[in-house]
Amino acid sequence: MVISARSLLLGRIRAALxxxxxxxxxxxxxxxLSDRKEGxxxxxxxxxxxxxxxxxVGLKASFVYPxxxxxxxxxxxxxxxxxxxxxxxxxxxxxxxxxxxxxxxxFETGAPLDAVxxxxxxxxxEAYALLATAC
Length: 135
What we know:
The chain is of the alpha+beta class and 135 residues long. Helix content is 22%, strand content 38%. It is globular.
């Protein structure tokens, strides 16, 4: 049996929580992947200074992998005295799939909630949240 990195992480989180402990996760559903576009962006102080306090140039390249329900945002941040690369992988999961993975790791979940408002999730491409209780 192959254990995914996500399963290992969820197992470690479960082991750290007491019974009844809560874990809140937010995620994007597969419908949101169709909104993703591949492309590049370059700017001085990319994202209005998000990446560093001083001067820098930021480069972002976005890639979409529909067969894996995943996307990658690759960033290169170039400051006067250093440079960094950040790889931000996003996997798009249906609430049922994430709930099943949480259950395998010892959590119970309720219905998905809107990730911003906390109200019941309406479906579609909007982000959702799951409240998982350690059992």
